[in-house]
Design goal:
The complex is a heterodimer of chains A (112) and B (115). Chain A has no helices and eleven strands. Chain A has 112 residues and is mostly beta strands. In chain A, a hairpin with a 4-residue loop joins strand 5 and strand 6. Chain B is 0% helix and 56% strand. Chain B is built from no helices and eleven strands. The termini of chain B are far apart. The chains are: A mainly beta (112), B mainly beta (115).
């Protein structure tokens, strides 16, 4: 089972910041939080990852709480092309090694 | 080259057919993955290959048979599939499966329809 929970859907106005929350209360101390997104009918695309500190790249910012039990992905100026399903992932340790298990994700609708 | 390619893009097959899906990457990655995605659902992990050896099989039915002939190629052989196996099949790769940081690069997928 996925180790993360996210709201099923969110709306955002074009040009505004989109803030996507994720709960991962069972995360272990050395596991990264990963964010991917999937635009309709395409393969998932890596966005950003983080361990303890906040992170920023050309696509987004990632804010991780001090206790690491939750995080927020921020798209600073959302565009229509950011409409997608956003997945927050913490890998699960199984008998064969770590596995990337996708949860249901958040469907973000960016509206003009 | 940071691309994972998958062929074919679309595949229609009957329940008695044998077909194969192909995935290729030239990023020097040593871990490769197959995922299955049904409509409006998240991707589900099927298989993980690490250094060309199968390391994870998520209890996938034997009608799906993965193969990793070399570090750049990953195949998924299909035989006697059922209509419920119709889905988008995604391939991904990463530098190594066991490392603490694991960014996966996904291909565009093969959309499979079983009649």
């Amino acid at each position: 089972d996925a180790k993360t929970t996210q709201p099923p859907s969110m709306d955002c106005a074009e040009g505004r910041a989109a803030n996507l929350p994720c709960n991962h209360s069972t995360i272990s101390g050395n596991e990264y939080v990963y964010w991917y997104r999937q635009i309709h009918s395409q393969g998932p695309q890596y966005i950003i990852h983080g361990l303890k500190n906040n992170e920023t790249n050309e696509m987004a910012s990632l804010i991780i709480t001090e206790d690491r039990k939750s995080s927020t992905l921020i798209l600073p100026h959302a565009t229509l092309r950011d409409t997608a399903v956003y997945y927050c992932i913490v890998r699960v340790l199984g008998s064969g090694g770590f596995k990337t298990i996708f949860g249901a994700g958040t469907r973000l609708f960016v509206k003009a | 080259d940071t691309e994972v390619t998958q062929t074919p893009k679309h595949l229609v097959m009957g329940m008695t057919n044998k077909k194969s899906l192909k995935c290729e990457q030239h990023m020097g990655h040593r871990a490769m993955y197959w995922y299955k995605q049904k409509a409006k659902k998240p991707p589900e992990l099927m298989f993980v290959y690490s250094y060309e050896k199968l390391s994870i099989n998520e209890s996938v039915p034997s009608r799906f048979s993965p193969e990793c002939p070399n570090s750049s190629l990953l195949n998924l052989h299909l035989h006697a599939l059922q209509p419920e196996d119709s889905a988008l099949y995604l391939c991904a790769s990463s530098q190594a499966a066991g490392s603490s940081f694991n960014e996966q690069f996904f291909g565009p997928g093969t959309r499979l329809t079983v009649l």
